[in-house]
Design brief:
The protein is of the alpha+beta class. It has one domain: Nucleoside Triphosphate Pyrophosphohydrolase.
């Protein structure tokens, strides 16, 4: 699997290409797990756990890794439920715009309790997904 790219190198990549990401919709008792982002993009917004896919990493494995890193939960991805793309003008890199494409998976919690990493400042179980997600649903 790929490794994390040094910030300056990643900045050049993000300035010149779209970034592949995964997001994870975790449902428990009819509610969705959302984390409140502590950094850009989307600082202060409740969002689904997820992030960049590393080179050589399968999407399924990226979902498991990102959810574990961000929430402490062990999940089992079930299926792809949709996709979205976004263009973030505010970002931690200080560049004009970051273009991301995200494949969205549904997943079930296998084990663990929510323990947030440094990227998030809070979490909640919500009745609805964020309207800003603009998810293009394939099926649910």
């Amino acid at each position: 699997m790929g490794k994390f790219i040094p910030t300056e190198t990643y900045k050049i990549i993000a300035e010149n290409s779209a970034i592949m990401c995964v997001d994870c919709v975790i449902v428990k008792e009819g509610k969705y797990l959302l984390v409140k982002r502590g950094n850009e993009p989307l600082k202060g917004v409740y969002w689904t756990p997820g992030g960049r896919v590393l080179k050589g990493e399968k999407l399924y494995d990226a979902v498991i890794r990102k959810v574990k890193e961000e929430t402490g939960l062990n999940v089992r991805p079930i299926s792809v439920v949709g996709f979205y793309e976004d263009f973030f003008k505010k970002n931690e890199l200080g560049i004009k715009m970051v273009h991301t494409t995200s494949i969205v998976f549904s997943a079930t919690v296998v084990s663990g309790k929510v323990k947030l990493d440094s990227q998030s400042v809070n979490y909640k179980w919500a009745k609805k997904l964020p309207k800003e997600l603009n998810l293009q649903l394939m099926y649910v």
